[in-house]
Amino acid sequence: MQSSLSLPTLSPTIPRSNYVVQSTLPLAPSKPINLRFCGLRREALGFSSLNQSDSHRVRLVASSRSKKVSASLSDNGSAPKSFDYDLLIIGAGVGGHGAALHAVEKGLKTAIVEGDVVGGTCVNRGCVPSKALLAVSGRMRELQNDHHLRALGLQISAAGYDRQAVADHANNLASKIRTNLTNSMKSLGVDILTGFGTILGPQKVKVGASDKVVTAKNIIIATGSVPFVPKGIEVDGKTVITSDHALKLETVPDWIAIVGSGYIGLEFSDVYTALGSEVTFIEALDQLMPGFDPEIGKLAQRVLINPRRIDYQTGVFATKITPAKDGKPVIIELIDAKTKEPRDTLEVDAALIATGRAPFTHGLGLENIDVATQRGFIPVDERMRVIDANGKLVPHLFCIGDANGKMMLAHAASAQGISVVEQVTGRDHVLNHLSIPAACFTHPEISMVGLTEPQAREKAEKEGFEVSIAKTSFKANTKALAENEGEGLAKLIYRPDNGEILGVHIFGLHAADLIHEASNAIALGTRIQDLKLAVHAHPTLSEVLDELFKSAKVKEHVSSPQAVAV
């Protein structure tokens, strides 16, 4: 299907709380050690604090277990008796990086294997360079919006841009972040092993083309994903491109077709139209933005698509796309998604294939441990433990991020990696994926956490509870009006009987930043009746969420278990 990959349907049996912790370490609370990754402190997730001496003691215990042992290729079927590392991570993307830093914090001797470049897709070919391009498109939109500027009393002459300078900005940002990630791991003592990692057997990995074998007590697979290109589409990297190519911004075509209207397609439509391109969306499903809450999607279409130089065809497949050559344009052959009858043929300057991403799991040696992928994804349980072809857990092997397909977001991969480290260091931890937010960095932005309204109503019907909806507009927010950015909506989906938040969806100025109050509330199990008492600075955009929670009608006025009187 050529719709961009949407967030997966998640099991309703996952506990609401974002953590389940059973400490096995007799550590007395003292001065907390600040966790330098993911912006979290230990107390925020409910973990016991470590003082400096306790942390040192854990590190010494872990180090004493780590004796260097050389493994030979002749005994791959059996597990080694001692190990080179406590934890070995295959893949140095955002997920692997988050797991590595947390492992060092917990005192584990850690190595990370990378066959390409540190940072993975997000840093080098994904969310980091795309945000650099979107920063440019945002500035261009402000400078091109004469009505908006006049409302603020500003007069600016025509805005222009230097394509190569814009491309350099994106490339330089990726390079800077990549260097920062590398230095952060090296400074903390994480060994970076260069080469493609192949699993030879239990707790054994071959690194690179040589016969170097590394052993580890626990292994995490974090190999990420690559752009998914449907059959019949010929990618030449020039006129028919994926997001990998588009981020280089080698050209700004007059007319570009974008196949898929999910996160990737929407963000690139924002970039291309701001820089002067005309865009045509090709969507296999009957509506644009199929992964979003329908009400938010309709509003976003009215603001992000209808007024811009964008047209679209829905309910169609691109069965064949031929790159431009010999003076001929890119040719796109469309058929009806349901009847499979020919629908149309488009001739455009370029085509961007934004049909989602596919897991990068080929060549990992999974057959050596009897693991069979499912559509390329590595099967795991709720604790990210790998499941073999017989349905049994593979000891000491975990898989995080895009490779397991639970939620294909960089910060989800990092959260999964941290969760795995918690487990291997003695704390049971189950990550609640319904508490993980997602965002689309268009102008304005879209963000969401938890269930959409249709998902919530389906769940309610099965489990026998009522669903209520609360909404608030950015037009009622002082800060948004001061910015002349009143176009926006926040939507709360909740249970009126007990105040549980089922989902929050925001479309508007800085929506990607605002969503975290809701995601943290879901993670910590905070109920609406307690959020109603929270104080927000005035005038700020955060009051959009304040008004949203205050407008909810909750029947039960019992505070959350976590609430503390002050």
From TrEMBL:
Cellular location of this protein? Plastid, Chloroplast stroma
Q: What InterPro entries does this protein's entry cite?
A: Class-I_Pyr_Nuc-Dis_Oxidored, FAD/NAD-bd_sf, FAD/NAD-binding_dom, FAD/NAD-linked_Rdtase_dimer_sf, Pyr_nuc-diS_OxRdtase, Pyr_nucl-diS_OxRdtase_dimer, Pyr_OxRdtase_I_AS
Question: Cofactor: bound how, per the entry note?
Answer: Binds 1 FAD per subunit.
Q: What is its EC number?
A: 1.8.1.4
Disulphide bond pairs? C122-C127
Q: Which residues form the Pyridine nucleotide-disulphide oxidoreductase dimerisation domain?
A: 436-547
Q: Which Pfam families match?
A: Pyr_redox_2, Pyr_redox_dim
Question: Which Gene Ontology molecular-function terms are recorded?
Answer: dihydrolipoyl dehydrogenase (NADH) activity; flavin adenine dinucleotide binding
Q: Where is the active site?
A: H538
Question: According to the UniProt record, what class of enzyme is this?
Answer: oxidoreductase
**Where, in this chain's numbering, is FAD bound?**
K131, G197, T223, G224, S225, D402, M408, L409, A410, H411
A cellular component term from Gene Ontology for this protein is: chloroplast stroma
Q: Which family does it belong to?
A: Belongs to the class-I pyridine nucleotide-disulfide oxidoreductase family.
Assembly with partners or alone = Homodimer. Part of the plastidial pyruvate dehydrogenase complex (PDC) containing multiple copies of three enzymatic components: pyruvate dehydrogenase (E1), dihydrolipoamide acetyltransferase (E2) and lipoamide dehydrogenase (E3).
Q: What does this protein do?
A: Lipoamide dehydrogenase is a component of the plastidial pyruvate dehydrogenase complex (PDC).
Q: What is this protein called?
A: dihydrolipoyl dehydrogenase
Q: Species name for this entry?
A: Rubus argutus
